[in-house]
Structure formats: C-alpha cells, structure tokens
Amino acid sequence: MRQYLFLAIAGICSSVAAQTPATNPMPDGSRDMYIGIGAQSVPRYDGSRDQRTLAMPVLQVQWSNGVFVSGTALGWHLSQSPSMEFGPMLALSPRRDQDGVSFSFSGVSEGSGARMAHTSFRPGEFNESEEIDANRLRNMDTVKRRVLAGGFFNYYLSPKLRLTNTLTYGSGRDRNGARLHTALQYMMEDVVPHHTFVLSAGVSVVNRAYNETWFGVTEEEAERSGAKGSYRPGAGVQDVRAGVRWNWALSPSWMLTSGATVNRLVGDAKDSPLVERATNYSVSTALAYRF
C-alpha cells in the first residue's frame, strides 16, 4: 500500500473484480487498517439502464504476514519480490434477484422497478404487449451469493505502472463460473500535494457457465417471462472498462477516496436479452479512517 493504495469498496455489480492492495512491508506483528463509509451510484445490474444510490462501506486491512482483507476479498501475499505480487484469494460474489444485484446494503431507487413502456428483447425478445412489466429480471431465477476461490498475480512494469490479474471460480447456479480480469493501473502521486490519482483500464474473460448465469435465459425463464426463446451465451470476453480513483489524504489518519468507472459489455454478454444498455457507469465517494 506504500506504492498503490486501493481502498476497496463492497462492489454491487456482478462483474466488479476483487481488488488486491499492494504489498506493504511493515514490522512483524503489525497491521495497517482503513475503515470508512460513503455512497455510490451503480447500475441496478450489469446491463441495466437504471442507476441506484447505495451505502458504500470501505474496508482494507493488511497484516505483516501478507494476509489482507480488501472489501469482500480475503487474500494472502506470498511474493517476496518487490516487482510482483501473487497469492491465493477468496471473494464473495453478489446476489441478484428481480430488484437487481446487491450484498446486504439498502439503497434508494432511481427509476428502477416497474416501467410499463415495453422495451423489446434482442435474441429471444418478449412477445409484444403494452401491459408487460419491462423489468427484465422479473421472471428470472435468483442468482445466489457464492464464495469464490481464486488467486491474483500483479507485476510492476515500472514503479508507477502495474499489471493486475485476478482469477476467480465458483460463481453461478452450479458453482462453476470462472472469470479472469486483467487490467493496467497507472499511479500519479503528488500531482497536487496530498492527492493521488490512479488510472486503470481492463478486460474480463469468462467461461460459458459464468456468462449463462448472469446473461443467459433458460427455457423455463423464457416461458415464465413470455420471451420467444432461451438464450445461451458462450465463453469469451465479457466486458472492457476504464476507471479513475482519487485519494485525498486529509491528515495522517483521514482519507477521502472517490472513483468513477465506465464499463462496456461486449460479445455474447452484450447481445443478452437481459441487457438494456451495454455501457454502464459507477461513481463513488467515501471517508475512511486509518487505524
């Protein structure tokens, strides 16, 4: 965390990658911890046109033995090299029901829920009816929370440029969904005193089970919803994204951390009948205290 300080948030979208803080050399038996609270505006689910404003907890703890908690991820830094970071990780995937994707935080709806104006599906589109509820998750099966197993490998191309890779497995109906997220992160430190900016750009690759869980429509779901047919997306690139994070050190103990991300669904995920808008954005801000 001396080089890259990423205060992790409890992500709401299903495609948010678990974040791994940088290795932070410290005396044996010590730890570094941030706890805070803020707010975030996020899509109701990946591909939704509706935004929700939700409470956003901030949590990051790292111990001298390399173990860390970052948002909803638990990991262990095993590398002794200053140019790379790797290790195992557990993460929590969110739940999705007809109201959207969530962990356990309540939110204020901004236009989500029932909209009576019909919006047609692409593959397997709805039968025309003026009275159809346009909530595309209304008759979809609930996607349960899952504990995901995986690992991370990060490599420093330079002191300010980091290549990150996070692989997780275990999401979805049958606990066999896999996702690899790869990103480049560039840090701009002390552009203004006490301010740090991190720019990032990344891509996510998933297997068929992952895509079918979050973007597929089974025959039973199609029958319940009035869609003309099922939809089975395959494996491949799921999304590309770009983001920026701004950390403002108000004092040695207090920090204001804010961020914005733009995400673009591609391939079979983009063509899903559940997708209303292929491009989503998320913004957040939170106040964190360092113990």
Q: With helices defined by DSSP (H or I, 4 residues minimum), what is the helix count?
A: 3
Give helix % range.
Answer: under 10%
Poorly predicted regions: 1-5, 7-16, 104-132
Beta-strand share of residues? over 45%
Question: SSE string, helix = H, strand = E?
Answer: EEEEEEEEEEEEHHEEHE
* Average pLDDT rating: 84
Could you give the count of β-strands? 15
Radius of gyration: 20 Å
Q: How far apart are the termini?
A: 14 Å
Which strand order do you get reading across the main beta sheet?
1-2-3-4-5-9-10-11-12-13-14-15
Biggest sheet, open or closed, and with what strands and sense? 12 strands, antiparallel, barrel
Keywords:
291 residues; mainly beta; twelve-stranded antiparallel β-barrel; 15 strands; disordered N terminus
Can you describe this structure?
There is one protein chain. Helix content is 7%, strand content 49%. By secondary structure, it is mainly beta. It has a twelve-stranded antiparallel β-barrel with strand order 1-2-3-4-5-9-10-11-12-13-14-15.
Secondary structure blueprint with pairings:
Elements: E1 31-43, E2 51-63, E3 67-70, E4 73-76, E5 84-93, E6 95-97, E7 100-102, E8 107-110, E9 146-158, E10 161-171, E11 177-192, E12 195-206, H1 208-215, H2 219-225, E13 236-249, E14 254-265, H3 267-270, E15 279-290
Antiparallel strand pairs: 1-2, 1-15, 2-3, 2-8, 3-4, 4-5, 5-9, 6-7, 9-10, 10-11, 11-12, 12-13, 13-14, 14-15
